Amino acid sequence: MSDIRDPSSPGSAPPPGAAGKGGKGGAPNQTLALAAMLFAVSMTFIDQTIVSIAAPSITDELGLSASGMQWVVNAYLLSLAAFFALGGRLADIYGHRRIMLVGTLVFVISSVLCGCVPSGDFAQSWLIIFRGTQGVGAALMFPAALAVVIAVFPVERRGRALALFFGVSGLLTAIGPLLGGWLTGWTWRAIFWVNVPVAIVALVLTALAHIPNNPRRERLDVPGAVLVAVGMGLSVLGLQQASAWGWSSVATWACIAGGLLVLVVFWRYELGVEEPLVKLQVFKDRAFTADTLVLFFAMLAFVPVFFFASVYAQVSLSCSPNQAALFLLYFFAGFGIASQWGGRILDKRGARPAMKLGTALGAIGFALWAGELTDLSIHDQWPYAAMAGAGIGFLLAPASTDAVNRSIGASYGEVTGITQTVRNYSACVGMAVFGTILTHVTTDRVVQTLTAKGVPDAAAQDAARSISESVTGNPDGQQPSGEGPVATSIRESMQAIQLDFAEANQWVFYGMAIALAVAFGCALLHPGTRVTQE
After folding, report:
1. What is the DSSP letter of 498?
2. In whole angstroms, what is the distance from residue 287 CA to residue 522 CA?
3. How far is CA 372 from the centre of its chain?
4. Which of 82, 175, 491, 494 has its CA 20 to 30 A from that of 144?
């Protein structure tokens, strides 16, 4: 049986109620502390999905390319993945409360700047830059917030608190599409400004909770932080740009291979450092490794599905942003219900049964959902969308909680940094790979449709590339202007092109089903041991 150490053990943070250095004295208010951390992390989860709903409106107003819009989404996820390990380590060194506050301020200031993006040539760069700094703020905030929850709750109540933390924070992802659809009806800029009141509530509750800071005076591994950020950045850049550069491009493979090589260097460097950024010895725990692998393959689908399902609904189903948000609600209904059952399974039987059930159900759900996409009917799809969401709901909290419970020496910020780095890096890979698949398949299908209508091959190729790269919620917005025969043929083919886009999305959703099937195999590697207390 594996165990985790009590926080009062040597080398750990002071026990709950102790006024650590930087604290305000007296026992922290556990309820207020948990509420404050949930308000803080809600912003990070909402922002993983809220931009997906607003993507067509942002693209139309600012004139972004599809690649640019994907980078607006990916910049946030990439900076999360690149800096989560650093954020977890900083939280352990400088104090969880302090880093949580710094992360919240960085996040909300970046949000305001995202909403103030000017029109013009610099718009795309502006939005990508500040989405990236948003991700940095989230990477500082999340591991620190989780560590706060662990520190203020005693051992006998910590499991329930962690289940609530992961369950509620996961459910908050559902608010993104709904809130995004409603706010976009006013202005898409509001999807960023809405973080301001949420951040204010989080900061006020943090002050009222009297949370101790409890820093550890240890060295920060700066070379390790640089290596992991560079490695992830290069590899995701290659994957993201493969659709534009081509898979035969030297630049594509130079970025992918170079990034992976840097990550290997990071791994070897960390093994030889006295105070590493990440204690890689935790991977010797077979259960932790299985948890991490399940999270990696599941997250290939979990975050990308918001973007691709939203765009599919708006392009192929002709949905408005609000209707697209409701379309995604079926997925979250399944997720919300199953997440509660997943937490109960974890408490009674451990993480392995919940992960097996979740990955199997998710794989089947995504496969059945993919098969219905070409029917162009929400009515036929909602049961399978709910099933796919339920699969993710069953596995997310158990895998995350089980991994955190297996931390070394109660370095909860650090171990959270590992698991969240894996989760967000996986989301970046999923966005990049599935985006490439969608672009290529859409282009091929549209070329076939247009040439069958008598459009010359060269003109069909140009039109297909333009259509596949446009991300707009109004299919009419994709129709070319002009009165020439080519433009007329394309306009007359828009209904067929909507079906082409749906067929391209089938490839993406079948890919998500395969990712969950691989996650099922990883769940079988878990030894089934449960974490106990000494």
Report:
1. H
2. 10
3. 25
4. 175
**Distance between CA 515 and CA 437 in Å, rounded?**
15
Query: Among 299, 289, 410, 395, which residue's Cα sits nearest to residue 350?
Result: 395
As a whole number of Å, the end-to-end CA separation of the chain is 11
**Nearest one of 277, 270, 272, 273 to 220, comparing CA atoms:** 277
Report d(CA 228, CA 85) in Å as an integer: 8
Collapsing DSSP to helix, strand or coil, 4 comes out as: strand
Q: Please give the backbone phi and psi of residue 4, each rounded to the nearest 5 degrees, phi first.
A: -115, 155
Contact 90, 220 (CB under 8 A): yes
Rounded CA gap, 213 and 218, in Å? Answer: 15
Show me where the domains of the chain are located: 25-220+277-443+502-529, 221-276
Task: Tell me which residue of 379, 320, 414 sits closest to 93, measured CA to CA.
Answer: 414
Which structure tokens are listed for 471? 């991300």
Q: Compute the distance between CA of residue 412 and CA of residue 530 in angstroms, rounded to an integer.
A: 18
Q: Are 469 and 439 in contact (CB under 8 A)?
A: yes
Give the bridge partners for 532, in sequence order: 3
**Is 154 strand, coil or helix?**
coil
Q: Measured between alpha carbons, how far is residue 8 from residues 5, 12, 163, 282, 359 in Å? A: 8, 6, 22, 20, 36
Residues in the chain: 534
Instruction: Compute how many other C-beta atoms are within 10 angstroms of the C-beta atom of residue 29.
Output: 16
413-424 tens-digit pLDDT = 677 778 877 887
Closest of 143, 144, 147, 117 to residue 130, by C-alpha: 117
Q: What is the pLDDT of residues 43-57, one digit of tens each?
A: 887 776 677 677 778
329 vs 57, 427, 478, CA distance in Å?
20, 20, 26
d(CA 100, CA 140): 6
**Residue 233 in contact with residue 78, Cβ under 8 Å?**
yes
Give the tokens for residue 416. 């959270």
Q: What is the pTM of this model?
A: 0.79
pLDDT band at residue 471, thresholds of 50, 70 and 90? very low
- C-alpha torsion 486→491→492→496, nearest 10: 110
- CATH number (3.65.10.10, 3.90.1150.10, 1.20.1250.20, 3.40.1190.10) of 25-220+277-443+502-529 reads 1.20.1250.20
Helix, strand counts (H, E) of the chain: 19, 2
**Amino acid code (one letter) for 406:** R
Of 195, 70, 46, 50, the closest CA to residue 127 belongs to: 70
What tokens appear for 287 in the block?
């259960």
Region 331-338: mean pLDDT is 85
The Cβ of residue 119 has, within 10 Å, a number of other Cβ atoms equal to 9
Q: List 3's β-bridge partners, or say none.
A: 532
